[in-house]
Amino acid sequence: MELRQLEYMIAIADHGSISKAAESLFITQSGLNQQLIKLEQELGIQLFYRDKHHLQVTAAGRIYVENAREIMKIKKNTYNILSDMKNNTVGEITLGLTLEHGIDLFTFVFPKFNRQYPGINFHLLERYVAEQHSMIAAGKLDFGLVMLGEQDKVNLEYIPLYQEEMILGVPKTHPCAGQCAAPGEPMPFMDLKLFKEDTFALMFPNSTMRGIIDPAFAAAGYQPKILIETGMNHALVKLAATGLCCTVLPFSRALCSPDRDAVSWFRLSPPISWTTYITYRKNTHLNEASRYFIQLAKEYGAELAMQMRRPFPCSEAPGRAAGL
Questions:
Q1: I need a labelling partner for 46 at 20 to 30 A (CA). Which of 37, 76, 124, 244 fits?
Q2: What are the backbone angles phi and psi of residue 280, rounded to the nearest 5°?
Q3: What is the pLDDT of residue 91?
Q4: How many other CB atoms sit within 10 Å of the CB of residue 245?
């Protein structure tokens, strides 16, 4: 068994196509097809079902690919350990990012990281939390940046970066808007029960955020009237700023929005929150560069947590203190 064969079979399983897998591996289709035929003949069992346009793993193929991923993970861990031993500073980190949140962290971390490790490249993938979990477990991501509640964790390692509350944003024309804090004063609490007749813009229903927000509406005794469900936090703030609806979103997303001062903000009573984590597979060796990346991510979290403790709204440009 050659490591090259393992890589080939993983690529075919991931792409479901000889042509796409060959393209990703920078080899010819005929060469890859011959490798598959040769391996199946050696093993004496079919690894993929074939039709004109697609390849799908058989039961035997699934076992082969799952174990191939484990072997490749062992290879990567071994190389990381050896890299530390000889202080090698060349390589790649594959990082999963959630929409909007992840880019803020990465743009804070990357300049410092790149000065220390200019030979290490990042491969970034924007994915929802559940998909990041699956990709990390399958060895397709080295690290993921995820925001979730304790109940959403799976069998991975989690390093907390910062915790933040979900806050309620209401249009300035709303009857409750006058109860918001004056500049420099603490944000007051507001009960969701008072907004039963209002319309809301919220994140997509299958998002981790909704898994935290929806129980708060249920506890308030109603399901919110929905104007729109979106994947963009800045759209939620803009809709509230234009007076169309109310919204609930993470503190940090309101903090960095250019429309934040056109909305009245309140903490929820009782408060609800989630935590941002760096996550990776258990029993993974973290080389020197990976440990430095995590250190910088923690610094970002500490900066942002400090900014969120300040009175809000304030006159400071959003995100400036955290380098966002």
A1: 76
A2: -160, 170
A3: 80
A4: 22
Q: How far apart are CA 282 and CA 276, in angstroms?
A: 18
Give pLDDT tens digits for 214-265.
999 999 999 999 999 998 999 999 999 999 999 999 999 998 899 999 999 9
Tokens of 40: 């199946």
Within a 10 A sphere around the Cβ of 197, how many other Cβ atoms?
Answer: 7
Place of tokens 């469900």: 229
Distance CA 78, CA 71 (A): 10
The answer to whether the 1-67 and 90-160+275-306 domains have the same CATH topology is no
Q: For 161-273, which CATH class?
A: alpha beta
Q: What is the DSSP letter of 284?
A: -
Among 86, 89, 21, 31, CA closest to 55: 21
Q: For residues 185 and 91, what is the distance between their CA atoms, to the nearest angstrom?
A: 48
Per residue in 110-145, pLDDT (tens digit) is: 999 999 998 889 999 999 899 999 999 988 899 999
Q: What is the pLDDT of residues 139-185, one digit of tens each?
A: 889 999 999 988 899 999 999 999 999 999 999 999 999 998 887 78
Cα gap 302→323, rounded to integer Å:
12
* Residue 125 phi, psi dihedral angles, 5° rounding: -135, 125
Domain borders along the chain are 1-67, 90-160+275-306, 161-273
For the segment(s) 90-160+275-306, the CATH number from 3.40.190.10, 3.40.50.11190, 3.30.413.10, 3.20.20.70 is 3.40.190.10
Residues 188, 180 contacting (CB under 8 angstroms): yes
Structure tokens at 135: 């990709």
Say which CATH architecture domain 1-67 belongs to.
Answer: Orthogonal Bundle (1.10)
CB atoms within 10 A of CB 52: 4
